[in-house]
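Instructor's aside before we start: the two examples that follow are unrelated to each other. I chose them only because their records fit on one page, so don't look for a connection. First example below.
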Amino acid sequence: MKTTIAIADDHELMAKALSGLIQKYEDYEVLYEVPNGKELVQRVSLGMVPDMVLLDINMPEMDGYETALWLKKNAPDVRVLALSMNDKEESIVGMLRNGARGYLLKGCRPAELKQALDAVAQKGYYYTEFVTSQLIRSLNMGPAQTPAEAMGLSEREAEFIRLACSDLTYTEIAEQMSVSPRTVDGYREHCFTKLNVKSRVTLAMEAVRVGIVEL
């Protein structure tokens, strides 16, 4: 009996290429492709439940972190294999904490994709040496890490994020932090990069999601 797979990736060309490649493997069958987590959740809720999901991280409407967590809570038998261009430690650890059984970089070779699928289907997980090293490093940081520390944020950057989630202007934030507007600009750019966002609104949303800011 074939292992069924769903692909969630907002890059249609990548999704089609993955689907075509996987369809060539006799042990696997692609049930469907969706451009975001929201559509995946809708299909799973309707009973279209795959054995495995190839899940991109950065997607509109519902990203990979949120989708993996939803599957972990609502469809725990579905095995998630994260697929991303992002090799940052916080991304890898975040996906694995949210229930992903493995983490694969999009630049991998087809042979590694097949190896990962086989490992997740047969053993339940696929951890490369690189992913394992990131996990060990994260564990060695200790359980007392705050969400801000887990994202690699300094105390001042975390303070900036908390203030940015208010209705203060950037000039007022600079006054509150007793720094120059240029320094605040630096905090903003660093925080945008570390949280992988592009606007103040998405910064606030991500800060709430990961627990840096509590509502």
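Example two begins here.
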Amino acid sequence: MDMTQAVILTIITAATPLLLAALGELIVERAGVLNLGLEGMMATGAACGFAAATLSDSAGLGVCAAMLAAMLLASLFGFVTLTLGANQVASGLALTIVGLGLSGLIGAGFVGTSRTAVPGLSIEGLSDLPGFGKIVFGQDPFVYAALVLTLLSIVFLRWTRAGLMLRSVGENQASAHAIGLPVLRIRFRAVLFGGACAGLAGAYLSLVYTPFWSPGMTAGRGWISLALVVFASWFPLRLLFGAILFGGATVLQLHAQAASLGLPSQLLSALPYLATLLALVLMSLGRRGGSAAPGSLGQSFVPDR
């Protein structure tokens, strides 16, 4: 039971940053914008969050700094793609490069510095229950925030007027504009929300997952989160299960390395990414009737003048 609980806790820990980043990207893409800069925003959020938390000795300020830094990068992306009409794919790739470089610059003075990880919840009489106590009542605040954000995303997209407007903009931008919806404003707000979620995921990496800063600590999680949105067919609940699946693949490679199976460590480290590619291929083969992506995804919108 202790081993099972430890494995489940590790899977949840590995899945949380993927879920946080992917939730933000899902909202962005449902609005019709493709932001490939998740990796850069996560890295910048991780660096800024760790730097602010270390200097102020406050994890809360670190989280705020991480979200703000990623939102600033997202606003730059939004200005270039939405206001100036630049290509979203090229701009997203450029944002990743800028974010990774900026994170290395900000975090250069904090390499080798460590701090205490954000503690998990502790409820007397509940967190110590055998089997599921720590799993349900002993998680850190980021895990509960990810679950709440998943629930709120479902409610927002399915049952609110603002969610209907966002989906309309993503499905057919011309029709949405024709009925008077502010396409650019809705998309810009979605992009900012995606940046905030990416920053939160980055803060989780440097303040909880590995409570120290090192260059490249995102390790491709931004790209996995992008693939996760496609895997989930742009639905938040499927995103939750997909994050657990990919988190399990990450944990599997760690246990495989510890078991000394005789396989090259490089191959085992590639398991999560191979699982991502396999999942996307299976989704593509099994999907009938074309892609489930929003109809206007990745298309620039220039309103009539």
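Residues 2-219 form one domain.
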